[in-house]
Amino acid sequence: MTKQAVVIAVEGLGTQLLSPYGNSWSGTKALSSIASRGLVASNYWHNDFSKEMFYRRILSSSRRSPAQQPEDESHVSLLKYTPSLQTHWLTDIVMDSSASPKRIPWHQSLPKLNRGDEILDSSIGQIFEHVLQWFSSASSESDQLLWLHSGGLQHRWDAPNELRHSYCQEDDPEPPEGDEPPEFSVDEDTDPDLITGWTQAAAAQIFLLDQCLSAVDIAISERGWEETCLLMIIGMGGYSFGEHGYVGFQTKSLWSETVQSPCIIRPGNKLPVTLYRPEMYQNEDLSHVLKDWFANSTTVSNGLLSFSGPQAASKWKPEHQIAICENEQELLVATPHWEFRRMTPDSAWEIFIKPDDRWDVNDIASRVPEISEVWMRYWQEIEPLWRSSDRSTLPALPKELIERSY
Questions:
Q1: Is the model's pLDDT at 76 over the cut of 90?
Q2: 230 Rama sector, left if φ>0, alpha if ψ -120 to 50, beta otherwise
Q3: Distance between CA atoms of residues 18 and 25, nearest Å
Q4: 280 with 45: CB under 8 angstroms?
Q5: Which of 294, 144, 149 is closest to 223 using CA atoms?
Q6: For residue range 42-60, what is the model confidence (pLDDT) as tens digits?
Q7: Which fold has domain 4-294?
Q8: CATH dotted code for 314-402
Q9: Per residue, what are the HEC states of 182-197?
Q10: What percent of the chain has pLDDT over 70?
């Protein structure tokens, strides 16, 4: 039996506006429907902000860090692993050699001005015309992979103003009407209503995306691929809405709202209900998902396609007890109950308790000296391993960092 995989990666798609991740007002019905019989990775963290490194990890034939791989090794393993796999790579942004491995044959279709009132006329919607055309023409005689990389919230925010207004409460001011994605710093003089208005505008954009995902879901059904098609939806970094003094996507720092992204995977009709996976997953794990799917495997080493019930964090594999994110000199390390962050190698570690402090608001390092001490000892042990190898070589977390005592 042939198989298919449809991967939709969207820039600026954070967890704040998605109902499978707890949002109760923006209303993403298609995403909720897809998640209702899929895997929801509650702790999916990007390794960094580089699109090039992201795709090198996805296509790599090695478990080593992309920085440790020869340039020509890191683009071909997915094709080698499934020789009959036919791939189609779509994007609505400019993918130059500095932003994507050179061997990915991207078909680029940049959005035009909004052509009307239909969802597929919007900047987000236009690329989905090509997606639906692919469904009508893709062969059922060989394995198929469609990968869409959309600029998402980087494009014009051209959802109808009425849709923006639909997210306003009775006493809310009018939301902003511009279509340029907002980028501005937030300080004590910034009107909170301005941030609220742009959040409502973003919700309108996500509504359009959600409707496009509904069309994809229908197309899978119409092709009769409900059993054989894996659908994966991932965020390529979140859009900040003032959580740490900034609204926008272009200026990035390592905070939960920017590097912890949605990842929803529906492996055909294999799950009767939503399975939330709390383990720590990162970019390279998606590569294993695709390889294992086309290899007809459902019990795999990385665990994302393993349909077992939830386990205590102490029983997770060490590589899924920790996620390490890097941006220039910044580091953010997420564990089941703690998040550790530092600005430079000489800075003190900030410590945030998870998941209580979802947006990293309260640094409690001075109040948990015992956790700080255990963490610093563990980091000294794993730092050389992490930089020279991969997460699978890391030792298990100390019990103080796994067991919830606060």
A1: no
A2: beta
A3: 9
A4: yes
A5: 144
A6: 999 999 999 999 998 888 7
A7: Alkaline Phosphatase, subunit A (3.40.720)
A8: 3.30.1120.10
A9: CCEECCCCCCHHHHHH
A10: 90
Phi, psi angles (nearest 5°) of residue 19: -65, -30
Over residues 212-263, the pLDDT tens digits come to 999 999 999 999 999 999 999 999 999 999 999 999 999 999 999 999 999 9
Q: Positive or negative CA dihedral for 97, 82, 6, 306? A: negative
| Domain spans of the chain, in order of start | 4-294, 314-402
Q: What is the pTM (predicted TM-score) of this model?
A: 0.93
Tally Cβ neighbours within 10 Å of residue 258: 25
Q: What would the two tokens of residue 131 be?
A: 């997606």
Dist CA 155 CA 138 (whole Å): 28
pLDDT the model gives residue 279: 94
| Residue pair 234/263 in contact by the 8 Å Cβ criterion | yes
Same CATH topology for 4-294 and 314-402: the answer is no
Query: In sequence order, what DSSP letters do the residues of 49-107 get, joined into one string?
Result: S-HHHHHHHHH-SSSS-GGGS-GGGSS-HHHHHSTT-EEEEEESS---TTTS-TTS-EE
